Amino acid sequence: KNEVEQSPQNLTAQEGEFITINCSYSVGISALHWLQQHPGGGIVSLFMLSSGKKKHGRLIATINIQEKHSSLHITASHPRDSAVYICAVRDDKIIFGKGTRLHILP
Amino acid sequence: GAGVSQSPSNKVTEKGKDVELRCDPISGHTALYWYRQSLGQGLEFLIYFQGNSAPDKSGLPSDRFSAERTGGSVSTLTIQRTQQEDSAVYLCASSLVFGVDTQYFGPGTRLTVL
Hints:
The complex is a heterodimer of chains A (106) and B (114).
Chain A: E1 4-7, E2 10-14, E3 19-25, E4 31-37, E5 43-49, E6 52-56, E7 59-64, E8 69-74, E9 83-90, E10 94-96, E11 100-105
Parallel strand pairs in A: 2-11
Antiparallel strand pairs in A: 1-3, 3-8, 4-5, 4-9, 6-7, 7-8, 9-10, 9-11
Chain B: E1 5-7, E2 10-13, E3 19-24, E4 31-37, E5 43-50, E6 65-69, E7 75-79, E8 88-95, E9 104-105, E10 109-113
Parallel strand pairs in B: 2-10
Antiparallel strand pairs in B: 1-3, 3-7, 4-5, 4-8, 6-7, 8-9, 8-10
């Protein structure tokens, strides 16, 4: 069974800081997702990766298949980025990390 | 519609009753997913459909849970003889094709079993 570990569990930072959230998994996968869950509960899919790097606005996601590791970066963080960020991996099922709670202070 | 819709948004039921949760995916999306998020817990994958077929039902928590999808569109998740531990937010998502596309999430159904 694939184990998905996210770090840190909680992160508080000042507006403008560069943020990195990490995700490691134990077994080879076909794809990895980064999701964002806002305090109201709604979930937005940010990225789906199978290799390399993707960028969307201030968000960047990378994956290293050999090291079984992915990172989500937020540049010039803003209070509206405050949310829970969830990593999910897909092999024959979809398995979620426990999430990273990010709080950006103004 | 513009996005994934779910109904009802909230459901309160008595222990032992059956409930049916509905998901309307984005038109044209062949893949549909059901997830559960219990209070204070992470997301849990339940089942996915590719078209009307659910290849793997092992993620369903018990045999009281069943799901079906008809016409490659609407899906229903049925929970029979509900228990208090079934209380959670049930989320549905859809994507163009299973596993290779962005998933779009619905707003969820909050189920409370008294």
